[in-house]
């Protein structure tokens, strides 16, 4: 008999995981519970790598949740394969990436929450360091760090670093201060400021980070790479720039500054589209070295 719940109308898997058998996890005195959420839709190509990067973490008090948007490509077969390692998973239609993230957060029991996309990977041992950071600094609202950029093969070709702490709060309105996949957030932060705003389908992560900062929550830079990110999502085009302008208006950036950033972004997009790849890579390496000089 299949132990996973089945939708009788569609004969498709709906949910599963260790919770079904009464195996619940909680915060412990010395080991806070970290809830790690993976959202996926037709992501069979890399999902298994993401799962393994979570379940092979050295930290023992992890709650792993997978939110699937109703995949039809074999994703559910991979999830079922690790049913005894996943605390909770559900498969049903959703309203996009951030809706799925919100769903995962609502299903979380941990006092610390992190999100990893289905085509990304957590770096080994990072959960242990995140737990220690929160335990040693109970006043903080979040941690963040660098993120390695990888190709489809998994080869690392670059790294995105966060702003230095001295620059974080002044520049955040104009640019993303750190990569969202590097960020682990205390559950109490979500309880206070709310979840991802679905009116920003491309930039709800940026909006959430700004709300954390505006509400006085402080973060700590882990000073190392948290995860590996496959660049190839929806962000980065003209729609993202337009949404960012709307987001910055919400958070009080002046009209003149908003539009100067917007048109500078359009110019950058145009230049990148006609610039040889090797020149772009050289500029990225130069900017990376320059950023380190301010740390």
How would you characterize the overall build of this protein?
The protein contains 10 helices and 11 strands. The protein has one domain: Spore Coat Polysaccharide Biosynthesis Protein SpsA, Chain A (Alpha-Beta Complex). Helices cover 38% and strands 21% of the residues. It has 295 residues and is of the alpha/beta class. Strands 1, 2, 3, 4, 5, 6, 7, 8, 9, 10 and 11 form an 11-stranded mixed sheet that branches.
Topology (SSEs and partners):
Elements (H helix, E strand, L loop, with lengths): L4 E3 L4 E5 L17 E7 L6 H9 L6 E7 L6 H7 L6 E4 L5 H10 L5 E4 L5 E2 L3 H11 L5 E9 L5 E5 L4 H7 L12 E3 H7 L10 H11 L4 E12 L7 H13 L4 H20 L2 H16 L3
Parallel strand pairs: 3-4, 3-6, 4-5, 8-11
Antiparallel strand pairs: 1-2, 2-5, 6-10, 7-11, 8-9, 8-10
How helix-rich are the residues, as a percent range?
Answer: 25-40%
In the CATH scheme, what's the topology name? Spore Coat Polysaccharide Biosynthesis Protein SpsA, Chain A
Number of domains: 1
Strand percent estimate: 15-25%
Number of extended strands = 11
Judging from the principal axes of the Cα atoms, what is the shape?
globular
- Please give the largest β-sheet: 11 strands, mixed
Radius of gyration: 20 Å
Task: List low-confidence stretches.
Answer: 1-11, 288-295
Mean pLDDT: 83
CATH superfamily (homologous) name: Spore Coat Polysaccharide Biosynthesis Protein SpsA, Chain A
- The structure class reads alpha/beta
Q: Distance between the terminal alpha carbons, to the nearest Å?
A: 58 Å
* N-to-C order of helices and strands: EEEHEHEHEEHEEHEHHEHHH
Q: Total number of helical segments? A: 10
- Secondary-structure arrangement, i.e. CATH architecture: Alpha-Beta Complex
Look at the structure and give the CATH class.
Alpha Beta
């Amino acid at each position: 008999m299949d132990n996973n719940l089945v939708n009788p109308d569609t004969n498709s898997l709906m949910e599963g995981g260790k919770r079904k058998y009464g195996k619940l996890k909680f915060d412990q005195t010395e080991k806070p519970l970290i809830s790690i959420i993976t959202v996926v839709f037709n992501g069979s190509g890399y999902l298994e790598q993401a799962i393994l990067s979570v379940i092979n973490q050295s930290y023992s008090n992890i709650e792993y949740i997978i939110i699937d948007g109703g995949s039809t490509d074999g994703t559910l077969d991979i999830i079922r394969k690790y049913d005894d390692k996943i605390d909770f998973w559900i498969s049903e239609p959703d309203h996009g990436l951030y809706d799925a993230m919100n769903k995962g957060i609502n299903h979380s029991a941990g006092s610390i929450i992190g999100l990893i996309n289905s085509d990304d990977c957590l770096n080994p041992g990072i959960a242990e360091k995140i737990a220690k950071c929160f335990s040693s600094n109970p006043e903080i609202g979040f941690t963040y760090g660098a993120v390695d950029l990888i190709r489809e093969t998994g080869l690392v070709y670059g790294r995105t670093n966060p702003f230095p702490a001295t620059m974080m709060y002044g520049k955040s309105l104009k640019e993303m201060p750190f990569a969202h996949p590097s960020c682990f957030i205390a559950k109490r932060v979500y309880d206070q400021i709310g979840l991802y705003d679905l009116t920003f389908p491309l930039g709800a992560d940026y909006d959430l980070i700004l709300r954390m900062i505006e509400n006085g929550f402080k973060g700590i830079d882990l000073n190392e790479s948290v995860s590996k990110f496959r660049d190839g999502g929806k962000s980065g085009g003209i729609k993202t720039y337009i949404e960012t302008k709307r987001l910055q208006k919400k958070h009080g950036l002046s009209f003149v500054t908003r539009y100067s950033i917007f048109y500078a972004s359009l110019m950058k997009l145009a230049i990148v589209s006609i610039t040889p790849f090797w020149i772009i890579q050289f500029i990225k390496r130069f900017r990376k070295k320059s950023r380190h000089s301010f740390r």
